[in-house]
Write a structure and sequence with these properties.
Layout (H helix, E strand, L loop, with lengths): L1 H16 L3 H4 L6 H4 L9 H11 L5 H9 L26 H9 L13 H6 L3 H5 L11 E8 L2 E6 L8 E5 L6 E2 L5 H13 L16
Helix pairs in contact: 1-9
């Protein structure tokens, strides 16, 4: 079933590749940049190398996509990020810290966060924990998959009970918002469908009540 779905996504991307990019440029932020094209898929060895480097496993839907359809390019906002950009949203500055952050369990859960969310996920001492030598981060256990612009990213949870879920985050720490999709393929294919239909996107991946 997953293979059939990937084939369907490929066909839809083929349809998009025939569109006039100038006419479609205002459908989403990155259309002129990626032109509805994806970079070649990762080799299996490249995916394994990334997983071993950070001590993680990529969520299955995302992994099969980037190893069989495309590794970056056409996608929401400014497009799908490459694995080289997977840690762009994290508050750390060295390889050991990135490994610790990606390998940690995400504190995000299946709820709607509001003001005060950092205390909820990190405790009263979340600031001290975040800047400690063995730092904690509210976005640990996630990888960036799209840059939404400014300080916003789309991230994918890497482990724990919500592994594979997608969240919209702000690195300036406004409350995160879970995307209303079961996983990566739902998220990605819905965006492709909207592009095929030439629907201009505003705050893709947010529940309609969350953004104007």
């Amino acid at each position: 079933m997953r293979t059939n779905r990937l084939d369907r996504i490929r066909r839809k991307l083929g349809t998009l590749s025939s569109y006039d990019i100038e006419e479609c440029a205002d459908l989403d932020l990155g259309v002129k940049k990626h032109g509805f094209l994806l970079a070649p898929p990762l080799l299996e060895s490249e995916a394994v190398a990334f997983e071993e480097r950070y001590g993680i496993l990529l969520p299955p839907e995302y992994r099969i996509f980037v190893t069989s359809v495309g590794s970056s390019g056409a996608g929401p906002y400014y497009g799908l990020l490459s694995l080289a950009k997977a840690t762009d949203h994290l508050n750390c500055d060295d390889e050991a810290a990135y490994k610790r952050m990606l390998g940690a369990i995400s504190p995000l859960s299946d709820k709607a966060y509001r003001d005060g969310w950092l205390v909820e996920v990190g405790g009263e001492n979340w600031k001290e924990k975040r800047y400690a030598s063995e730092s904690w981060d509210p976005f640990q256990g996630t990888m960036a998959i799209c840059d939404q612009g400014c300080t916003y990213y789309t991230v994918l949870v890497l482990s724990g009970p919500y592994c594979g879920t997608i969240w919209n985050i702000d690195i300036c720490l406004s409350p995160p918002v879970r995307a209303p999709y079961s996983g990566f393929l739902d998220y990605y294919e819905d965006w492709v469908d909207r592009m095929v239909a030439k629907e201009k996107q505003f705050w893709y991946g947010y529940p309609r009540s969350q953004k104007g």
